[in-house]
Write a structure and sequence with these properties.
By secondary structure, the protein is α+β, with helices and mostly antiparallel strands. It has 6 helices and 20 strands.
Length: 295
């Protein structure tokens, strides 16, 4: 007997409602599961391809023409965070990175403070080995659970993945749905102090009041993307309402009514100028997905 499928399915859902840049055209089908069982049943019986997995939409630029197939959004679902008897944090893919950092600090566990600087969910962090402040997600991972397109759940150890700088391989077409994170015991007050200090430093150095995707470019080996962009005198460069932040050069902000097309053009221009000036090819950290809008 088939599981009664819960959750919400929307047609033609505007993606600017679900991306941190606040841009993006409509998704053909947009599904918000209520439970893992809902998601498994939906995949087995109702999902149309291609499938795009989404968390808080903080590491993607969705083009103005929108997304074909089905978008499955795990933000605010599959978001439980628990601590087992061995001190291992079990976290769902929909749990916000900031929430995991605070949970760990309050539990007297150190090592996850950097997650407070990542504006996404654990699922996205796992998929791209997100990092900040010299920390990265997979340095904490003991195991990860993935959900295959046929609805099958599989738990894999850290050693079964190939992990690099801002990239992970080994999950194939499956989506991350949970992970076990191993941290170090520490004094809770000290960890919370470090966490607050990191958040204050982030607020002082990043344009958090404007929609953005966080860092746009990966840091080249031995250098920083922000330094190169600033040295190329690109701070403040603007296409429409898309602007290279004057506060942090590796942020492109939406000053109100930017289109994805303008952001994408600005990204390309920054790459071109840095290449011409310094011979360095900046690689985007975020993914560009979707269709160009019809003229």
């Amino acid at each position: 007997m088939m599981h009664a499928i819960g959750g919400r399915l929307r047609l033609g859902e505007p993606m600017h409602r679900h991306t941190s840049w606040r841009v993006g055209g409509p998704a053909d089908r947009f599904y918000l599961p209520g439970t893992l069982e809902d998601l498994q049943a939906f995949l087995q019986h109702f999902a149309t391809t291609p499938i795009t997995w989404l968390g808080l939409g903080s590491n993607v630029l969705v083009r103005d023409g929108g997304l074909r197939g089905t978008v499955i959004c795990l933000a605010n679902t599959l978001d439980a965070i628990t601590l087992d008897a061995s001190g291992l944090i079990h976290a769902g893919a929909g749990a916000g990175a900031v929430k995991i950092a605070h949970f760990a600090a309050k539990a007297g566990l150190a090592g996850a403070e950097f997650l407070a600087g990542i504006p996404g969910t654990l699922g996205g962090c796992l998929a791209m080995n997100a990092g900040a402040n010299d920390g990265d997600t997979w340095s904490l991972v003991e195991w990860a659970e993935v959900l295959h397109p046929d609805g099958r759940v599989q738990r894999l150890s850290r050693s079964e993945f190939q992990v690099g700088y801002r990239e992970v391989q080994g999950q194939g077409a499956a989506c991350f749905i949970a992970a076990g994170l191993r941290l170090s015991p520490a004094d809770s007050d000290i960890v919370l102090q470090r966490l607050r200090a990191w958040q204050e430093r982030r607020a002082a150095t990043q344009p958090l009041e404007w929609p953005s995707c966080g860092s746009v470019f990966r840091n080249p080996p031995g250098d920083h993307a922000a330094r190169l962009i600033e040295a190329a005198e690109l701070k403040g460069l603007r296409y429409g309402d898309a602007e290279v932040s004057t506060q942090h050069a590796n942020f492109i902000i939406n000053r109100g009514a930017a289109h994805a097309e303008e952001i994408e053009a600005l990204v390309a221009n920054v790459q071109r100028e840095v290449r011409n000036r310094f011979g360095v090819e900046l690689q985007p950290e975020m993914r560009v997905i979707g269709e160009v809008a019809d003229v």
